[in-house]
Design brief:
phosphoprotein; alpha/beta; CheY-like_superfamily; Response regulator; Sig_transdc_resp-reg_receiver; TCS_response_regulator
């Protein structure tokens, strides 16, 4: 994990993308943001990029392959798994079955429900970034 690497966000909802973009900007996060709308495009990006990745933030409900299926594909790819990229879900849909699946069957580091208002969403995103900036990790640079 690179502290200065790209933040990969898989989110298909235009309003949520704008909302998250405003929060990240307001937090003063300097990392490059890579916005992707589908799990398939995210997997393609991760498999072909030479850029360091700081974190992956994924919605659960995506067109085509779900966020959970995407996380499983990342875990099943030996090259991507070796990169030890922090992966968190940030989703409106945070039912307990999905949370259980993410933690018990995948190497997920967090599952967050989208905040009901701007302040709560901003607080959650700040906590996620602050945690991963401090955390030691197999690929910490």
């Amino acid at each position: 994990m690179s502290k200065s690497g790209v933040i990969v966000i898989i989110e298909d909802d235009v309003d949520d993308r704008k909302f998250l973009s405003e929060i990240i900007s307001e937090l003063g996060v300097a990392n490059e943001l890579k916005w992707l709308e589908t799990a398939e495009s995210a997997l393609e990006f991760l498999s072909t990029t030479f850029q360091s990745i700081f974190i992956i933030i994924s919605d659960v409900k995506l067109p085509g392959q779900s966020g959970l299926e995407f996380k499983k594909a990342v875990d099943d790819d030996p090259t991507l798994r070796r990169k030890s990229i922090p992966f968190v879900f940030y989703s409106t849909d945070a039912n307990q079955d999905d949370v259980n699946d993410a933690f018990l069957n995948m190497n997920t580091q967090g599952f967050f429900k989208k905040g009901p208002d701007y302040k709560k969403a901003k607080d959650a995103i700040k906590i996620i970034f602050d945690y991963w900036k401090l955390c030691r990790h197999p690929n910490t640079q």
